[in-house]
Specification:
The protein is α/β, with parallel strands linked by helices. It is built from 16 helices and 17 strands. The chain has two domains: 275 residues, Dihydropteroate synthase-like (TIM Barrel, Alpha-Beta Barrel); 101 residues, Sulfite Reductase Hemoprotein, domain 1. The chain has an eight-stranded parallel β-sheet with strand order 10-9-8-7-6-5-12-11. A five-stranded mixed β-sheet has the order 13-14-15-16-17. A two-stranded antiparallel sheet has the order 1-2. α4 runs parallel beside α5. The N terminus is likely disordered. The structure holds iron/sulfur cluster. The site of iron/sulfur cluster (SF4) has 12 residues, from α14.
Length: 387
C-alpha cells in the first residue's frame, strides 16, 4: 500500500515538513482514491477538508441558506443537510442557488428521498445501505448517482449495523462496524459504482479509532472521519480532538466532521483547530493567549473572546498573541507576528517580542485588528512556505 506525507497539498508541504518533523518522519498519510463532491476533491493527495451539517429545518430555505453562508464564512468546505421528507428534498434546488459549497443530502430509510435529492441538485448523497432497503432500491439510487456523477457516502454507525453482523460480533464492536462497512462497499461495487466515501463512526472514541484503523487497512475508499454524537462543547471538543486527531496523526482520514451539540459554526472552528494543531492546514490566525495570573490587570478573557469573534472569518495564518501584562507578555509571546498586552490603562502592540506602539487600553482590540489588517497586506503564500 502506497503512502504519502500528511499535507494539505504541495504548497503546504514545506511548512508541514518544517514544523512537523518528528510527526512527519513517522507518519504517512494513507493513500486513498480521489473522488469529487461537487468541485471539492476528497481523498488521494487533496487537502483534508472540513465539513459540517446544518441543524435547521432543511425545508426552511432562508434559515438553511443563512446557516450555510455563516458556515462558509467560517471555512466550511462541504455541507450536509438532513432530508427527512419530500419538502426537504425539493428545497435542495432552491438552497443550491444561494450557496457556494457542495451540498450532500443525508437520507435514511427512504431510497426515493435520495433520488429526489439527487434530482434536486445535491452534489452527493449520504446513505446507509444497511437501512435504505433491498438490492433493487440500492440499485435505483446508484443508477441516479451514476447518471449525475454523484458520490455516495456510506455512513456506518453503531446504530446501523445489520442484525446478523451484530449477532456474530456480540454488539456494535469495531469489527462489526468494519464488516458492515465492507458489506456496503461490496454492494455498491457489485453495481459497478466506486465514487464512494466511507464513515464508520461510534460515539465511543476508542471504538471509533479502532474501527477506522481496521477499515483503513482493508480499503482504499476515502474516509470521512469523526466521532458521532460527541456531545456538548467540552466533551465534544475533547472527544473529537482525541478521535480525529489520533487518526490524522496516523495518516488516516481525508475529510473530517466535528460533531457538537452546538451551532455548527463551532464544529468548523474546532475542525480547523485540530488541523492547525497537527500542522496539516493553516487556515486563519493562530491565537496564543496567556491563562492570566496575579499580574493581569485587564479583562483578558473578554478581550480574547471579542477578538476570536472578530477574527473568525480571517484566512491568513498570522500568529497572534493576546497577553495579560505588559511586563511579561511580549517576552512570553516572542514567536507571535503581532501581539497585544495591557494593564493600568495602557495598551501595547508588539511584533516578534518587540514593543512597537503604546495607546490607551480601551484601544487594544482595534489596534490589534489594524495590525492584523496590515500583516495580511504583506503576507503571501511564499511567506507561508518560509515561515
Ligand atoms: S503574560 Fe503576564 S498575566 Fe499573562 S500569565 Fe504571563 S505574567 Fe501572567
Amino acid at each position: 500500500m502506497r503512502s504519502r506525507p500528511v499535507t494539505a497539498g504541495n504548497n503546504r508541504r514545506k511548512r508541514a515538513n518544517i514544523h512537523g518533523n518528528t510527526f512527519m518522519s513517522s507518519t504517512m498519510r494513507k493513500k486513498t482514491k480521489r473522488i469529487h463532491v461537487g468541485q471539492v476533491a476528497v481523498g488521494g493527495d487533496s487537502a483534508i477538508t472540513v465539513q459540517s451539517m446544518t441543524n435547521t429545518d432543511t425545508a426552511d430555505v432562508p434559515a438553511t441558506v443563512a446557516q450555510i453562508l455563516r458556515l462558509e464564512a467560517a471555512g466550511c468546505e462541504i455541507i450536509r443537510v438532513a432530508v427527512p421528507d419530500e419538502d426537504a428534498a425539493t428545497a435542495i434546488a432552491r438552497i443550491k442557488k444561494e450557496i457556494n459549497i457542495p451540498l450532500i443530502a443525508d437520507v435514511h430509510f427512504d431510497y426515493r428521498l435520495a433520488i429526489a435529492s439527487a434530482s434536486a441538485g445535491a452534489d452527493g448523497l449520504r446513505i446507509n445501505p444497511g437501512n435504505i432497503g433491498g438490492d433493487d432500491k440500492i440499485a435505483a439510487v446508484v443508477r441516479v448517482a451514476k447518471d449525475l456523477n454523484l458520490p455516495i457516502r456510506i455512513g456506518v454507525n453503531s446504530g446501523s449495523v445489520e442484525k446478523d453482523i451484530l449477532k456474530k460480533h456480540g454488539g456494535p464492536l469495531p469489527e462489526a462496524l468494519v464488516e458492515s462497512a465492507l458489506r456496503s462497499i461490496d454492494r455498491l461495487a457489485s453495481l459497478d459504482f466506486n465514487q464512494i466515501k466511507l464513515s464508520i463512526k461510534s460515539s465511543d472514541v476508542i471504538n471509533t479509532i479502532a474501527a477506522y484503523r481496521l477499515i483503513s487497512r482493508k480499503t482504499d475508499v476515502p474516509l470521512h472521519v469523526g466521532v458521532t454524537e460527541a456531545g456538548g462543547l467540552y466533551a465534544g471538543i475533547v472527544k473529537s480532538a482525541m478521535g480525529i486527531g489520533t487518526l490524522l496523526m496516523e495518516g488516516i482520514g481525508d475529510t473530517i466532521r466535528v460533531s457538537l451539540t452546538r451551532d455548527p459554526v463551532e464544529e468548523v472552528r474546532v475542525g480547523f483547530e485540530i488541523l492547525k494543531a497537527l500542522h496539516i492546514r493553516q487556515r486563519g490566525p493562530e491565537i496564543i493567549s496567556c491563562p492570566t495570573c496575579g499580574r493581569c490587570r485587564i479583562d483578558l478573557f473578554g478581550l480574547a473572546e471579542e477578538l476570536e469573534k472578530r477574527l473568525l472569518t480571517r484566512t491568513a495564518p498570522v500568529k497572534i498573541a493576546i497577553m495579560g501584562c505588559v511586563v511579561n507578555g511580549p517576552g512570553e509571546a516572542k514567536e507571535a507576528d503581532v501581539g497585544i498586552a495591557g494593564g493600568d490603562g495602557i495598551g501595547i502592540l508588539f511584533k516578534k517580542g518587540k514593543v512597537i506602539k503604546k495607546f490607551p487600553e480601551d484601544r487594544l482590540a482595534d489596534e490589534l485588528m489594524a495590525a492584523v489588517d496590515q500583516w495580511e497586506k504583506t503576507w503571501s503564500t511564499e511567506d507561508l512556505e518560509n515561515k
